[in-house]
Amino acid sequence: MIKKVLVIALIAVIGFSLMNVMLQIPFGEKRETVGDYYLQKSPQELKVANSVTAIVVSFRGFDTLGEVTVLFLAAMSLASIMYRRKRKGDIEIRAKKPSSRILQVGAQIIFPMVVVLGAYVFIHGHLTPGGGFQGGAIIATASLLMLITYRKFKVNHNTITWIESIAGIVFVGIGMTGLLKGLTFLQNFLELGELNSLLSGGIIGIIYVAVGFKVAAELTGVIDTVLLNNRPDNNDNN
Amino acid sequence: MDQLLTISFYGTAIALIAVGLYAVLAKKNLLKIVIGLSIIDGGLHLLFVAIGYVKGGTAPIFSPEITSNDVMVDPVPQALVLTAIVIGFAVTAVALSLVIRLYRHHNTASIDQIKNLKW
Amino acid sequence: MIWQIIILIVLIILTVGAAIYAVVAKNLLYAVVSTGLISLGLSMFFFILQAPDVALTEAAIGVALTTIIFIITIRNTTKYEDVSDKKKSIERRKND
User: Fold this and answer.
1) pLDDT tens digit string along A51-83?
2) pTM
3) How many angstroms separate the Cα of C60 from the Cα of each of A124, A140, A143, C39?
4) Among partner residues A133, A140, A227, which is closest to C72 by beta-carbon distance?
5) Which residues pair with A231 in a beta bridge?
6) 3-class secondary structure, B66
7) Domains plus CATH for chain B?
C-alpha cells in the first residue's frame, strides 16, 4: 500500500516537471530547422514527391540500414529463444477445431487483394504516403490471416530466409556500387526522372522495394515462429 | 481557449507516459509490465510528432496541386518516429518471448515468486 | 469549428481511458484489446497532426501485429492476473 502511494507521488512529480518544460515550447510556431533545407532540396534536386521518403532513404539512409539490421537481430533472437527440440509425444497443431465456413471462404477472397495492396504501397513509396515498412507490415498481416484460417497452411522457412538475404544484399550492394563509382556510400548514380512519375528519384524506388520484401519476409517468419510451437498435450489454462 | 486546446496534445502524450510508467513500476504480472512499456512508446511518439506541427500547415508531400507558397509541417520528426515505431514493435516481440520462457521454467507469471537469482 | 473541438475531446477521452483500463483490468484479454484501441486513437491523432506516413505505420503495426503477439503470449501463459481471480470467475460462472 505504501509502495503504491510512493509510486503515484513520483509519477506526479515527473509529470508536473515535464509539463512545465513542454509549456515553454509554443505549439504550432514556425521555427527555422533543418527541415526547411530538406523541403527545399527534395523536389528540385532529387525530384522525389514524398519528402519523408527522401529523408528516410536518401538524406539519412545510413540510419535505415541500422534499422533493418535491428529488425533482423530481433527476428533471429526471437527464433532462437523459442526454439524447442521435437520430442516424442509432442503435438504440432495450431487449433483443435477447424474454423467456420464463412471465414474460410472470406479469407480466400481477401488474401490476394491485401497482398496487391501491400505491393502497391511499397512500390509507390516515393509518390504517395507509404513505403517499405508499411507495405511489408500489410503483407505480413495478410499471411497472418491465412495462417489463422487454414490449419494446413505452411510457410516454408527456407524460402523466407533466401528472400530476406537476397533483399539485404541488394540494399548493401546498391550502396557499394555508389562507392565503387567514386561517390560516397548510398549516393544516387542513376538518372533522375521528372517529378511525380513512377521512375523518378533514381535509386530510391529500388531501395524501398528491397526493404519492402525484406520486412515482409521477416515479419511473416516472426508470426509463424510465434504461432506454431510444439507444446505437450496438457493445456488447462484456457 | 484555443491555445489551451492545442496544448492538450502535449497533455495527452504526458498522460500516456505517466500511465505506462505506473504500470511498469507498480504491477506484479509480467504481461502488464510489457503492456506498460508499449504504452510509454506510444506516448513518446505522439510527443515527437506534436513538436513538429506548424499551424495552418499541410502534409509534406509535393502533389501536383501544391503551389509554391503553402506552408508545410516539419518532415524530420516524422522520419524519426517512423523508425522508432518499427523498433518498438521488435523490442516488444523479444520481451514477450522472454516472458514465455520464464513462465515455462518457473510455472508462474508473477515477479514476486521468481526469486532464485543465483550468482 | 465547434465540431473540431468536439472530435478532439472525444479522441482524448478515448485514448487516455483505454490506457487507464488496460492497466487496471483483471482479465488480461481485455487489457490486450485496450492496447489495440490505444494504437487506433494514436493513429487518428497522427492524421490530425498532418503526418500520413506515421499514421499508416502505426495503424499497420500497432493494431494487427502487436495484438496477435500478445494473444499468443496469453495462450502460453495465464489468462488472469491473479490466481484468485480465476477461482472467483469460475465460481461466478457456476452460479449463473
Assistant:
1) 899 899 888 888 999 999 999 999 889 888 877
2) 0.90
3) 17, 10, 14, 10
4) A227
5) A91
6) coil
7) 2-60+67-106 (1.10.287.3510)
